[in-house]
């Protein structure tokens, strides 16, 4: 009675690729890395401050929630990509251009959302939610400035790649 075992190519490829998974601790010590962590923390504050209110009664705050949650999720996604150095394993993607487009669009849409947030906060609207909305407006402008900084660093990185 003979038992034969075989290894599939999928298993062999999976074990080979998972052993090369890297972790870049130094990324969090760079200015873009610190800005990204700040964007995540303060972006979380923006949408949780609004989510704890009756924002759904006011369409302006729905827009702010959409922008805040959308870019919070994408920023977490990009942080994971940069921390695990996944971008080195997918060289077909122009990562400097992707980063520039992501940060640029985040800056523009967050700026619009922060302005909408700030202009929608009035004591007449709802006294109960006023402080949460005012705080979310402040943090939205801070997150906007972080995305502006990361847009600048992405542009410098993209420009240095195109000059080579």
What topology emerges from the helices and strands here?
Elements (H helix, E strand, L loop, with lengths): L8 H10 L12 H21 L7 H25 L11 H26 L9 H34 L1
Helix pairs in contact: 2-3, 2-5, 3-4, 4-5
Could you explain how this protein is built, in words?
- This protein has two domains: 22-92; 95-121 and 130-154, no CATH class.
- It is 71% helix and 0% strand.
- The chain has five helices and no strands.
- It has helices at residues 9-18, 31-51, 59-83, 95-120, 130-163.
- α3 (59-83) runs antiparallel to α4 and α4 (95-120) runs antiparallel to α5.
- It starts with 8 loop residues before the first helix and ends with a helix.
- The model is unreliable at 6-19 (pLDDT under 50).
- It is found in: Membrane.
- Pfam families: MARVEL (PF01284).
- The chain crosses the membrane at residues 27-50, 56-81, 93-113, 133-155.
Shape: elongated
N-C termini distance: 64 Å
- Class computed from helices, strands and strand pairing: mainly alpha
Number of domains: 2
The number of strands is 0
| Average residue-wise pLDDT | 86
Number of helices: 5
Order of helices and strands: HHHHH
**Percent helix range:** over 70%
Strand portion: under 5%
Q: Pick out the low-confidence regions.
A: 6-19
Quick one: biggest sheet? Answer: none
Q: Please compute the radius of gyration using only Cα atoms.
A: 21 Å
Transmembrane segments: 27-50, 56-81, 93-113, 133-155
Membrane topology: Multi-pass membrane protein
Subcellular location: Membrane
GO molecular function: structural constituent of myelin sheath
């Amino acid at each position: 009675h003979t038992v034969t075992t075989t290894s599939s190519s999928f298993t062999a490829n999976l074990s080979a690729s998972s052993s090369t998974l890297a972790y870049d601790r130094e990324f969090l010590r760079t200015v873009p890395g610190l800005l990204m962590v700040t964007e995540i923390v303060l972006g979380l504050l923006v949408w949780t401050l609004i989510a704890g209110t009756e924002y759904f009664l006011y369409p302006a705050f729905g827009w702010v929630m959409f922008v805040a949650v959308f870019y919070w999720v994408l920023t977490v996604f990009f942080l994971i990509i940069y921390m695990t150095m996944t971008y080195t394993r997918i060289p077909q993607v122009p990562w400097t251009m992707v980063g520039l487009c992501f940060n640029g669009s985040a800056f523009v849409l967050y700026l619009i959302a922060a302005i909408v947030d700030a202009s929608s906060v009035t004591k007449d609207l709802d006294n109960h939610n006023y402080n949460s909305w005012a705080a979310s407006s402040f943090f939205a402008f801070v997150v906007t400035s972080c995305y502006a900084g990361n847009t600048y660093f992405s542009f410098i990185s993209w420009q240095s790649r195109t000059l080579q």
